[in-house]
Amino acid sequence: MYLLNCLWLAFAILLAGSVLCLVSKRHKVNGPLAMISMAAAGLLAVFVAVQVWLNGPVTAGIDSLSIAGFPAVPVFTVDRLSALFLGLIGILSMASVLYTQGYLPHYKSEDPRRYYPPFLLFVLCMMAVVTVADLFYFLFFWEFMTLTSYFLVVYQRDNKKNLEAGFLYFFMTHVTSAGLILVTILFSGWTGSLSFTAIPEIYRQRPPPTRPC
Amino acid sequence: MFTLLLVLLFIPFIGAFVTAPLQQRKADVAAVIMAGAVMLAAISAIIWAGGGRFDYSLAGLPWLTVPFPLFGIQVDPLSSLMLLAITVVGFLIVLYSAGYMSELNKEHPTQAEKDRYYFFTLLFVGAMTGLVLSRNFFQIFLFWELTTLCSWGLISHKRSSVAVQAGFKAMVITAGAGLFFIAALLIMYVKTGSFEFSALGQLPPTLRLTAVIFLLIGAWGKSAQLPFSSWLPTAMEAPTPASAYLHAAAMVKAGVYLTARTIISSQAVPAQAGYLMGGLAVATMFFGLILYFFQDDLKRLLAFSTIAHLGYMFLGMSLGVAGSRLALQGGLLHLINHAFTKTLLFLAVGAISCATGTRSIKALSGLGRKMPVTAAAFIIGALSISGVPPFNIFWSKFFIIAGAIQLNSAWGWTVGLLAIVESLAGFAWFLAVVHRVFFGPASPAAAAAADPPPVMLIPLLVLMVLSLLSPVFGLAIITRIMGG
After folding, report:
1. DSSP string covering B33-51, please?
2. Nearest CA of chain A to the CA of B471: how many Å?
3. Alpha-carbon distance values, A168 to A160, B129, B290 (Å)
4. Domain of residue B458, residue span
5. Which residue in A211, B187, B347, B391 is deepest, having the highest Cβ count within 10 Å?
6. Total structural domains in chain B?
7. What is the pLDDT of residue A209?
8. Would you state the pLDDT for residue B333?
9. In a domain, B203, yes or no
């Protein structure tokens, strides 16, 4: 359980960091704040990943966030597959924020408040996507990840090509999310649960397809 | 509790008459205090009620024989849900108006006739409060007609010929549809001798269907559903804060409330009426959607978006009649989510027109740099109204679509998939508008623009937060409505 508490602490740090980065317009304030938040959250993520890799999977839910009348419960599971991705996200995100400290000041006309908050939220969503074990919340974080990354794509908002790319990216990912929405709804109807662990049950209960002779 | 509800009911009316003789800053201060008092009284009543139902008799009419006193006050979870939207949005609108109705407003630079504006706004808050605290259909109808009068006063506020015509049109269409409400009341009284919500269930099946359809026609007129939609876009002649109130919490939501009250309290809506409601809701959603693409005026775009989103609410409720509790919850959740998000969008557009003197999408570009807070407000509103998580409307749209598909019928699948298509197309258009108006280099109209004063920014900031968090308290109240 303490490993998942570490993971949720990483989420909380990223959330708090994204809010704090809104306070100042100056990169000298914003950049280090983002770096500290990312380093703390990234190290926690790597720690969780290593522990899971060595000792096996952990799982726990936040029951207080469950929705009345809907079978979605935010359950997080870190197994070795998600640990691998969690570790990679932690390491690469720290590297990215470190690199940004020197790169972002080149965009003199742009406000860093439009970069760091969405970036930290984007990392939070990526970490949540690889660890959440409920289809509805997977969809939720997946879509939120798209939204935050869209703001990173259109960071240079005076550049027409960036805007076109941002529009295309956001629209296409939103359209394809319709498929995820349908799957989520269908699974919840079939099994009464949205847990990833319930998905194999559907196929066990359904008769195997007949092969043509 | 009884005293608190009485205070809640009468403060807005007292406020309207107190503010009526005042001018300029005095009118602002009095209106803000009164609207704030209404909001605090409503929140206190909701907390005190705690999801329970309180019903108090006041008086009757000696010449009208009915089993229970005709007039009274009732608060239950459904009225609590509406009260929250009416009073919180009402207060934010009044606060915003104190900055909007000024000489600094480039679109409508005047403080004249603030007295009349606040009179009708507070009267509107009172009419809506009375409507949701009503204990039977007869009482609802009285406040229903008062909302029509208030909307006429606000839509024709500028007194230009276009504004006067728009006010007249709104009154004729909504009052015309309201005649069917009267017909439904007559059927109920003649057959059951009562106007109680339960009277609908006592009618024989054929008459019950007729009465429900008559009530629905009244509701469709008020909520600008097809074929009564034409009054809503022309009602954009009202000052923008008044438009926001008309579209978000009052007037159009009265129709949704009447339908929800009929479904939940009478438990007697026939399935055929549900299918009719659902079919018309989907047609209205697509009618609104198609007209998005032809709008250059930001306010008219929002008007058609309102028409489409009211369709979502009716769709959710119609699926509730067909047996989906999830969709009914979604419809009710959409009511409160839309209230906050649409107010946010309207007030952001008001700030834009105030600063630039125009609402034309073609004339505006690069506002993001000039008005960062307003831009953030509009973008959050646009993403929310398009159903992008984590914002509020994602939850209600998801519940409606999930409820439709989980019915596992051809009808459920059809309307569920159509709702997904509408949502995606609406998202694309709002995203395009965001790119056009807020990104890129600043256009001449936007060159000298700046964010509005704090009195207008505070409502925007509060509504941004509510556009994220309204499902938290909305779902808690709706669980009570559903008997949880």
Report:
1. HHHHHHHHHHHHHHHHHTT
2. 10
3. 12, 45, 21
4. 270-484
5. B347
6. 1
7. 62
8. 95
9. no
